[in-house]
Amino acid sequence: MSQTMSPLGRPQPLSLMFLLGMGMASERSNCPSRCSCQYLEVNCTGQQLQEFPADIPLDTRQLILAANNVSYLPAVELSFLADLVYLDCSKNLLGDDLDFTFIGVAKLVYLDLSFNNLTQVTFSTFSHLLSLVVLKISDNPNLVAIEKDAFANNTWLRHLDVSRTGLTFLDTSTVRDLPNLRFLGLSDNLWHCNCSFLDFITWMTESNIHFPDADNITCYTPEGLQALRMQAVEAQLHFTCLTQLHKTDYVFLCLVGFCIFLAGTITAWLAGICAVIYKIHASKGEEEEEEEEEETAT
Fold first, then answer.
1. Which residues span the membrane (predicted)?
2. Quick one: what percent of the chain has pLDDT higher than 90?
């Protein structure tokens, strides 16, 4: 079928639109094996994938890899998906090698890494996700550490879930300094309710953030506080930490007292020596004066 050509040999606008449409159709036809593709969405849920799928259309905005056996997310392949805003990698085998993984998907708004094998979250894990609003890292039983400044760059974060992990401690500033945070999941963790954790418990009771499943935000240790809700132990910790002294405190006070006693003893000894020396010099001066008076008299 012939088409109308411009004087420069280019297709007319209608033909050009047709060719562009064909190009887009061919691009979307490159759907990863065992995945289903719709407009701007690739869904690979429950396909027993061992690796990150290849041939993902570059204009994909929603990628679902839930319920597979993926143990590694390649940063380079992810960076090709520059328009990605939604990524669901829940129920996989992702471990602790996620630093700088998301450096090329700065537009990401939703990230689900729940039910994986994460062990820690550092500043480099999510620092490039400046648009992140929802982050789910719950149900990672080996997750035992979240660095103090882990979410320092995620100022748009509104929903954060760290429930059912191996966390025993979370620094208050890690979540307190998130200006848009409204939802924080903390239930069924191994919280160690000691004096170091008192500041976080106080922040919880005073903040306006919603804590879902609040009845299960309980202390795991020490034994005397086990299974008690955070709000219930706050007053007790205040009394224990602010009015009672621990063994280390007594040792410190004893050392301070001994140092003060020793310093006082040494000072008194030096003062006594100085007084004796002064008295000796004074008596010698008087004897010399008396001798001079006697010589003058004779």
1. 250-278
2. 65
